[in-house]
Every structure is written in structure tokens, then in C-alpha cells.
Amino acid sequence: VFAHLVQAPEDPILGVTVAYNKDPSPVKLNLGVGAYRTEEGKPLVLNVVRKAEQQLINDRTRIKEYLPIVGLVEFNKLSAKLILGADSPAIRENRITTVECLSGTGSLRVGGEFLAKHYHQKTIYITQPTWGNHPKIFTLAGLTVKTYRYYDPATRGLNFKGLLEDLGAAPAGSIVLLHACAHNPTGVDPTIQQWEQIRQLMRSKGLMPFFDSAYQGFASGSLDTDAKPIRMFVADGGECLVAQSYAKNMGLYGERVGALSIVCKSADVAGRVESQLKLVIRPMYSSPPIHGASIVAVILRDKNLFNEWTLELKAMADRIISMRKQLFEALRTRGTPGDWSHIIKQIGMFTFTGLNPAQVSFMTKEYHIYMTSDGRISMAGLSSKTVPHLADAIHAVVTK
Ligand code: LMR
After folding, report:
1. Where is the Aminotransferase class I/classII large domain (predicted)?
2. Number of C-alpha atoms within 13 angstroms, CB side, residue 353?
């Protein structure tokens, strides 16, 4: 009965790793998926995560019972505090509901399904370009996906005018997906002044902000700085949704741990929103897993572990910034034609190089360098040892 099926294409991002794994070359380099690597090119388990896991193992009272549908309640509270700030009016007034979800993707999906079921506007505007999974998540959630201008290929920076025009033209009440920091794939973020203009425009038109926060602490190295745009929207008393992921900032990729928060106008509404979120979650996966959320809760509740985490996070962010500088320098010393200053201007895990699909495929074929076909490279996958190889490849492809 399935004989009519055609072979589906690999995922544009995760498929890069599949291709990389098949390549026997000793010089191969995976700059596709946004996953942190050490200077030795190895995945990193944070020291603070190991300590938290040890605590969990030592605690013989821990059981493997089902979590409630909303997940680990302490984790939810701590996650809301982390993203909105301990002094957030929404937390103080108890008008926020937070549910544990399966990392960023799961949080976006649950939020999308909730909006499709209960929000009067069914259109969500996403940035052009955006993370490849966004349009699929929201379409399958039952929303209509449209795009707004965001990136200007000419400047390799923000098309702020286009952004304001498109959001200004969106029907009142539309949902707008905003990357809280370290925009994926471009690494281009609005300034705080521009965020303020976006906020004013969105509030004046009743547009519903839905933040995707996948990189808190990774962009600037500071958890508070990276959460600032979200906090500006919460401070004005209006509603918003926030999807949080701990994949990158705690290195908990495979634990699938994240949270969806919905900031409401009153505690009473937040309670009813939560009751409806449970109806979205229960038929999807019943309740979320316990282990990853427990690790996060141990770290966030303990002052010492929390401080240790911020240091490890900063070290990861700093290593990425240093890779940007090294790659930029390597191209400069090679005299590679073109302006490569966007490598040091863009922030977060990715550089949107401006290389086109044909150039990317040349670099994969000739240099065994793997990246998404849109020219995005994960700076977190680079090391001092591999920068020269990448710079050689870029130089070769733009001078050929
Ligand atoms: C990425 O963009 O590389 C990451 O967010 C990983 C993923 O799931 O695509």
C-alpha cells in the first residue's frame, strides 16, 4: 500500500549531517547544523550539566513517574524567570503560563496549534529568510504562513525599511514571528532602537508577537542582553508568546528541552489559556520528558551552578566571536575579493556568507566543507585549525 511513495528529500539542515557522515575525507568539515563544537571539533557537554546530572543520580528519592501535561512545574517557573527577568511584571502579576515542551520546535508547534485553534487571526508572518523549519511547523499547526522582508543581500544587513513596510501592511491582529536574538540564518539583528520601533508599530496594529528564543546568552554572551527585545514587549503590558530552547545555551540538544510561555492580560486568562494548552499537548505526546527539564531546574535553582553556567556560556559565545575574527583575518590575508566585514558584524551561531548554492556545492565537492545551500555556515563548527581550510575554499570559489 505504500508502493506509490516517492523518496522524500533529506531535511535541508539535518540532511547536511547525513551527507557529511558519508564522506570518508579526513579533511571534511561540517558547518551545517547549528551545534557547538570545541576547538578540537568535538561536541561539548557542559561541566555544569555533568554536575547537575550527578546530583540527579545521587538523589535516590527521584522516580520516573509521568510528569503533568504541562511538564516540570519548577522548570516552567524558572524558565519564565530566565527569559522575562525575575522582576517581570507578568510574573509578579501571575499572568503568564509556561509549559515545558520538546525544545524550540515543540514549543513553536504547541504555540502554533494553540493560536490556530483559539486566536482570531490565522496568519503568521515570518522573516524572509528564516530557519527552514519555521514555515513547516506553522503550516502543519494550521496557520497560514506569509513572509516579511528582513534581510538585505546588498548590505548583508537588516532591511529595516522593508520590515516596517511589510509589518505595517499586515492585517491587524496578524501573528508575527520574531527571532529574539541571533537571527537564524542571517546573524542579523535589529538594534534596540529598531526593536523599539518594531514594538510600537506592532502594538499600534495589534499584531501578536511570537518570539523564538533559541540562542539566549549565545549572541552577546549575556542572558539579560539577549532577552531584552522580549522584555520590552512584556514591559508594555501587552500579550505575547515565547518559545525557549535549551539546546544551544545549555548544550542539551538531544534532551529536547524547551518551554512555551504565553503572557496574558490577567491571571484569570492565563489560567484558562493553560487549560487549553493542555488539550493541545495531551493528544500530541501526553506529557514531556523529565530528564532534560530536571537538569535545567537543578542549574537554574542553584546560585553557584547558575553562575558557573553563565561562565561556560560566555566561553562558548566568545569562542564563536573569535572564530569570526579569525575567518575574517584569514580572508583578508589571502586578499579574497569582496567585502567580508559581515562575518564580524553578524552575531550568534551563524554567518550568512552570501555564497550561492553553486558555490556551496563546489566547496563541498572540492573541499569537503558541508553547509546549507543558502550559504549559511555554523561558526560554532569551526576551530583555529579548520579556519585556513575554509578560507582557502572561499578564496578558491570566489576567484574561480
Ligand atoms: C539549525 O538551524 O541548524 C539548528 O536550529 C538545528 C536544527 O534543528 O535545524
Report:
1. 28-394
2. 28
